[in-house]
């Protein structure tokens, strides 16, 4: 299988005619290389970088999250809500941290989190009585090695609806807790990359979010070529009319 390639430059655009772009509501390429604005090229969720530094890696430029103060705050727009609808996250992950205490990678408040603990990946979302959570196998990744992590959730209160992949391959085992009672509303909480408290030391090259569940074949393809639906500046790409794009976003509950 091919190893994922260098990221597109600043000014790149989404090819909305590509199958993998369907349902995409966030794409932070983290290729700015300076300043404190991290652009979302999919919709309007541009984030503000706090205390971050830029680091060249074998997979292109990335943000060095220092584990102390670095975060990207993307606000609390509607399309980033975590409700009971399907979703997928994909992001690069390279960390020097594998200790047991949970550290947040992505959060929406303190109740909607993707975190790492014991060299595994956890997804947790808050329900009224018992939170839904699922953790991948422990000791699943090594320090200072870049991976593409993909996480899907079908929106159900059953933990088997969550699947976690590393470089296109699903975790061989899980620790799971099913939810009890209704979902807690976190629509007013900001969507933060790196979190505002329990930050993990890591280098991240991109983060993407879909409001649908990517299939296993799509996840494998995404690992092989994560930028296949992104077109660099001045390149020819299939551009859908604005009215059609508005209809696509409206079907996802996104107002523009």
The span between the termini is 39 Å
Please, what is the average pLDDT?
A: 84
Q: Count of helices?
A: 2
The shape is: globular
Report the β-strand fraction as a percent range: 35-45%
The tally of strands reads: 20
Give the SSE string.
EEEEEEEEEEEEEEEEEEEHEH
The parts where pLDDT drops under 50 for at least 5 residues are: 235-239
Query: What structural class do you assign from the helix and strand content?
Result: mainly beta
Largest sheet: 9 strands, antiparallel
Structure summarized in a few sentences:
The chain is mainly beta.
Account of the 3D structure:
The protein is mainly beta and 256 residues long. It has one domain: Sandwich (Jelly Rolls), CATH 2.60.120.200. The protein contains 2 helices and 20 strands. Strands 2, 5, 6, 8, 13, 14, 15, 18 and 19 form a 9-stranded antiparallel sheet that branches. It has a 9-stranded antiparallel sheet with strand order 3-4-7-17-9-10-11-12-16, with no helix packed on it. Strands 1-20 form a two-stranded antiparallel ribbon. 41% of the residues are buried.
């Amino acid at each position: 299988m091919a190893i994922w390639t260098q990221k597109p430059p600043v000014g790149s655009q989404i090819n909305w005619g590509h199958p993998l772009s369907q349902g995409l509501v966030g794409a932070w390429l983290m290729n700015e290389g300076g300043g404190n604005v991290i652009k979302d090229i999919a919709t309007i969720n541009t984030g503000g970088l706090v205390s971050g530094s830029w680091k060249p890696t074998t997979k292109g430029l990335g943000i060095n999250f220092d584990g102390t103060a670095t975060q990207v705050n993307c606000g609390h727009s509607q399309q980033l809500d975590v409700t009971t609808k399907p979703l997928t996250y994909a992001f690069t992950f390279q960390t020097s941290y594998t200790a047991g205490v949970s550290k947040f990678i992505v959060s929406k408040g303190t109740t909607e989190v993707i975190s790492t603990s014991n060299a595994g990946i956890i997804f947790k979302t808050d329900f009224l009585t018992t939170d839904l959570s699922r953790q991948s196998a422990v000791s699943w990744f090594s320090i200072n090695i870049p991976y593409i992590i993909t996480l899907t959730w079908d929106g159900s209160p059953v933990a088997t609806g969550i699947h976690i992949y590393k470089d296109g391959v699903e975790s061989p085992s899980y620790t799971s807790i099913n939810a009890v009672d209704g979902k807690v509303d976190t629509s007013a909480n900001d969507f933060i990359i790196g979190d505002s408290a329990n930050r993990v030391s890591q280098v991240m090259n991109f983060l993407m979010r879909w409001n649908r569940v990517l299939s296993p074949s799509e996840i494998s393809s995404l690992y092989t070529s994560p930028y296949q639906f992104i077109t660099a500046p001045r390149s020819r790409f299939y551009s859908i009319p604005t009215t059609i794009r508005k209809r696509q976003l409206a079907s996802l509950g996104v107002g523009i």
